[in-house]
TrEMBL record:
Residues 1-23 form the signal peptide. Keywords: Signal. Pfam families: DUF900 (PF05990). InterPro entries: AB_hydrolase_fold, DUF900_hydrolase. This is Esterase/lipase superfamily enzyme. SUPFAM superfamilies: alpha/beta-Hydrolases (SSF53474). It comes from the Bacteria.
Length: 399
C-alpha cells in the first residue's frame, strides 16, 4: 500500500480530475512574525550555547517557532537564514503528550562561524555538509545527520542545511517549489563556507531532491568564489539523487567536474538503485529518468542490454571524477530510497567514500569502468543492517 501511495504522487500530478488531492501549504492561522518574537529566535552576539549538549551545526531557511519552551522549525519559509546547534532528536514531554523533537539553540551568525572554525581547527580542516531531500521535517533530517555522524565517525564538524520541505507524501510539488526558491540561499551559504581559509575540505552529502540544490550551487561557487580555487568542495556524494540525468551530465561538464577540478581531487559518487520507487514516481511526474535510477529511457538500449544477458540498467556517461554505485541488489525499505542509511553493504561503502577511500573489495565491476554494483553479503547477520548503519530502529524516519 505504501508503494501505491508514492506512485499516487505521480498520478495526482498528471490527472487533476482523478479525485486525488495533493497537499498544499497555506499561511496558517498565526502571523509568521509572531512565531519569532521571542529573543531566542534572534540571539544576541555572545549568547552562550552548550557545544557539548548540542554538538552538531545547522543552517536553515525554515521559519522557527519560538513560542514554546522547545523551539521547533516549521515547514514554512523563513525570512532569513538562521544558524544554530543541535543534537539528535528525542522524545520530549510537551504538556501531557510526548513529541519527537530536536534539541536546538540559535546563535548569532558571527558566533556560529567562530564556533565552526574552532571545531574545524581542532580537527583536520574537514567539514561534512548534509543537504536533505523531499518529504522531510527538521526532526527526520536531524536524525539522519546524527546517524551519518555516528556511522562514519567523521573527524570534523557535521553541518545540516535544512530547507522548508513539508514532510508529507503528497507535498512533492510544494517541496520542489521551496527547493527552487531556496537555491540562492543555499548557494550563498555554500560559497561562504568554501571561502573560509580554515576549511580545507568539504564533504558534501545530498539526498534525493537535495541534489538539485547541490549541483548548481557547486557550479555557482566555482564560477564566483573569491578564493583562488573552490576545489576544497572535493568529495560530493549524491544519494538517490532526484535530478534529471541528462541535465546532470550537461551541467557538471563545464565547472563541477572540469579537468581542473578533477586534477585538484574533486570527485562525485552517486548512489543509484533501479528498485527506487520514489524515483520511479518522480520519473513519471517529470517524464525523464532521474540520476538516482538507472532506468533505460531508450527502449532500444534496454533491448540491446537484454540481448547481451545484462541487467537493463542505464547510467550517466563516464567522465573523469564520476563514480556510480548501483545498490539495486542490496535495496532496503519500502521504497528503496535511502539505501545509504539502511543497507549494511551500502552503508559500508558510504563510510569509506566519506573517508576518501576510492575503492572497495565489495564493489563488483561492470562493463562500464565508472559503474560498480553492490551485492548482498552472505556473511551478514540478520540484524547487520541496523548494526552497521548505526540506526535507531525504534524511531523510523520516512524514506
Amino acid at each position: 500500500m505504501r508503494q501505491l501511495r508514492h506512485l499516487a504522487v505521480a498520478s495526482c500530478a498528471a490527472l487533476t480530475l482523478s479525485g486525488c488531492s495533493i497537499a498544499a501549504v497555506d499561511y496558517g492561522e498565526i502571523r509568521h512574525a509572531d512565531y519569532v518574537v521571542d529573543p531566542r529566535c534572534t540571539p544576541q552576539p555572545g549568547a552562550v550555547v552548550d557545544g557539548e549538549a548540542l554538538p552538531f551545526f545547522f543552517a536553515t531557511s525554515r521559519l522557527p517557532d519560538c513560542r514554546a519552551p522547545e523551539i521547533e522549525l516549521l515547514h514554512h519559509r523563513g525570512d532569513r537564514i538562521r544558524y544554530g546547534r543541535f543534537n539528535a532528536p528525542r522524545d520530549v514531554e510537551v504538556g501531557k503528550k510526548e513529541k519527537f523533537l530536536t534539541p536546538l539553540a540559535f546563535q548569532a551568525p558571527a558566533d556560529w562561524w567562530r564556533a565552526l572554525q574552532a571545531e574545524t581547527d581542532r580537527r583536520q580542516g574537514r567539514v561534512l555538509l548534509y543537504v536533505h531531500g523531499y518529504r522531510e521535517n527538521f526532526n527526520t533530517t536531524s536524525k539522519d545527520a546524527a546517524q551519518i555522524a555516528r556511522m562514519t565517525g567523521f573527524d570534523g564538524p557535521i553541518i545540516e542545511y535544512s530547507w522548508p520541505s513539508q514532510g508529507k507524501i503528497l507535498s512533492y510539488v510544494v517541496d520542489e517549489t521551496n527547493m527552487y526558491h531556496d537555491v540562492r540561499n543555499f548557494r550563498d551559504f555554500l560559497k561562504s563556507l568554501a571561502e573560509q581559509d580554515w576549511v580545507k575540505e568539504i564533504v558534501l552529502v545530498s539526498h534525493s531532491l537535495g541534489a538539485r540544490l547541490v549541483v548548481p550551487a557547486v557550479a555557482y561557487v566555482d564560477r564566483t568564489s573569491t578564493r583562488a580555487d573552490s576545489s576544497n568542495i572535493s568529495n560530493i556524494i549524491l544519494a538517490s539523487p532526484d535530478i534529471d540525468r541528462e541535465t546532470f551530465e550537461r551541467d557538471i561538464e563545464e565547472e563541477v567536474l572540469s579537468a581542473r577540478r578533477v586534477a585538484n581531487n574533486r570527485r562525485i559518487t552517486a548512489y543509484v538503485s533501479r528498485a527506487d520507487k520514489a524515483l520511479a514516481a518522480s520519473r513519471a511526474i517529470h517524464g525523464y529518468p532521474r540520476l538516482g535510477s538507472p532506468y533505460c529511457f531508450n527502449p532500444f538500449k534496454a533491448a540491446e542490454l537484454k540481448a547481451q544477458g545484462l541487467p537493463e540498467r542505464c547510467y550517466p556517461a563516464s567522465r573523469p571524477g564520476l563514480t556510480v554505485i548501483d545498490t539495486t541488489d542490496v535495496s532496503r525499505g519500502s521504497t528503496g530510497h535511502s539505501n545509504f542509511l539502511r543497507s549494511a553493504v551500502a552503508c559500508r561503502d558510504f563510510i569509506d567514500v566519506v573517508a576518501n577511500k576510492r575503492t572497495r573489495p565489495e564493489r563488483v565491476a561492470t562493463q562500464w569502468a565508472h559503474v560498480f554494483r553492490l551485492l548482498p553479503d552472505p556473511a551478514l547477520p540478520k540484524d547487520g543492517d541496523d548494526a552497521t548503519c548505526h540506526r535507531t530502529p525504534e524511531v523510523e524516519a520516512p524514506e
